[in-house]
Amino acid sequence: MQQLVASESPRLAPTIADLERQFAVQPPAVVAARGLTRTYGKGDATVHALRDVDVDIAEGRLTAVMGPSGSGKSTLMHILAGLDRPDGGQVTIAGTEITQLKEKKLTQLRRDKIGFIFQSFNLLATLTADENIVLPLSLARRRADEAWRRGVIEAVGLTDRLTHRPAELSGGQQQRVAVARALINRPAVLFADEPTGNLDSRTGGEVLNLLRRSVDEFGQTVIMVTHDAGAASIADRVVFLKDGRIVQDRQRMTRDEIYDTIKNLEDRPARDGEGSPR
Ligand code: ADP
Fold first, then answer.
1. Nearest-atom index, ligand 1, CA of 50
2. SS3 for 63?
3. Does residue 192 form part of some domain?
4. What's the gap in Å between 276 CA and the centre of ligand 1?
5. Cβ of 22 below 6 Å from ligand 1
6. pTM of this prediction?
7. Local confidence band at 144 (pLDDT 50, 70, 90 cut-offs)
8. How confident is the model at residue 16 (pLDDT cuts 50, 70, 90)?
9. Is 67's C-beta closer than 6 angstroms to any atom of ligand 1?
10. What is the pLDDT of residues 69-98, one digit of tens each?
11. Is 232 within the bounds of a domain?
């Protein structure tokens, strides 16, 4: 695997997703949600964060979730990742229906099947980069597959930073540690919550490049919540939420198309009964 190089146009060669589309092959869904609803508060203060959401997330694809602030992106991501439970509806991850799972089984499933990347990196300050990367395996008392570990560390360009602690790393390097940590146990799905939110555009571009490569080279399934049209333009598919509903679901879009779509959603007044009372 090569060292990561930031590229202005990382999408010149056709991806597996492009070929699948060309030959109308439908990859299986790794995450499937049916009829998800989630409300917060009671009475007049009720907020409908999700209203009857159905979505299938295809294997080996990068799916971006976008929408105006308050549209339900975080709520959807937390429920799809088993970090929160819906009031109604079901979520299946890699064949397991998770909404009825007991907390212990759910924790186990998250540990074994899901990788997370957060805006704020969420590394443990007292551990070195290497210790942070293998943390999911240490917690599961499993040993790393050495070839995979080396491959991931090389892919994220951290070979010479492994003994550094987070405070000794730049923001971009810390997020690359987080990407490596999310990939180390080959999760069925990797959730990225505003992964470039705390990074400058060049460093953010490197992290996006890395996520894209994890899909193209490792067949990783990635779901990324972002409000950044540039970030979402690396996705194979962009799902737009508004007022707790999926209002558009599109295949590869340019940054300008995404920007215009979001602008329209923000400008368009909510239809009767569509708005969420605050
Ligand atoms: P987004 O991520 O798109 O900004 P969220 O999923 O965070 O949207 O929120 C969707 C709606 O649910 C918003 O109206 C928000 O104010 C509300 N909401 C989210 N979390 C809570 C909570 N813990 N308590 C009350 N309301 C909440």
1. 10
2. strand
3. yes
4. 10
5. no
6. 0.87
7. confident
8. confident
9. yes
10. 999 999 999 999 999 999 999 999 999 999
11. yes
pLDDT of 241 reads 97
Give me the number of domains the chain comprises: 1
Block residue for tokens 């930031």: 6
Q: How far is the CA of 45 from the centre of ligand 1 (A)?
A: 12
Q: How far is CA 173 from the centre of its chain?
A: 19
Determine whether the shortest distance from the Cβ of 48 to ligand 1 is under 6 A: no
Mean pLDDT of the residues in the chain: 89
226 CB within 6 A, ligand 1: no
Coil, strand or helix: which one is 49? Answer: strand
Q: Is 48 helix (H, G, I), strand (E, B) or coil?
A: strand
**Tokens of residue 196, six digits:** 């470039």
pLDDT over threshold 50, residue 5: no
In-domain check, residue 7: no
> What secondary structure does DSSP assign to 221-244, as a single string?
-EEEE-S-HHHHTT-SEEEEEETT
Compute CA 67 distance to the chain's CA centroid, rounded to the nearest angstrom: 15
Give domain status of residue 261, yes or no.
yes
The 10s digit of each residue's pLDDT in 213-270 is 999 998 999 999 999 999 999 999 999 999 999 999 999 999 999 999 999 998 776 5
pLDDT at position 269 is: 65
The proportion of the chain whose per-residue pLDDT surpasses 70, expressed as a percent, equals 90
| Atom from ligand 1 closest to the CA of residue 278 | 14
| Whole-angstrom distance, CA of residue 199 vs CA of residue 23 | 37
The answer to whether the CB of 40 is under 6 A from ligand 1 is yes
Q: Are 210 and 151 in contact (CB under 8 A)?
A: no
Any ligand 1 atom below 6 A from CB of 35? no
Minimal-distance CA residue to ligand 1 atom 27: 40
Domain of 161, in residue numbers: 16-267
Q: What is the CATH number of the domain that holds 103?
A: 3.40.50.300
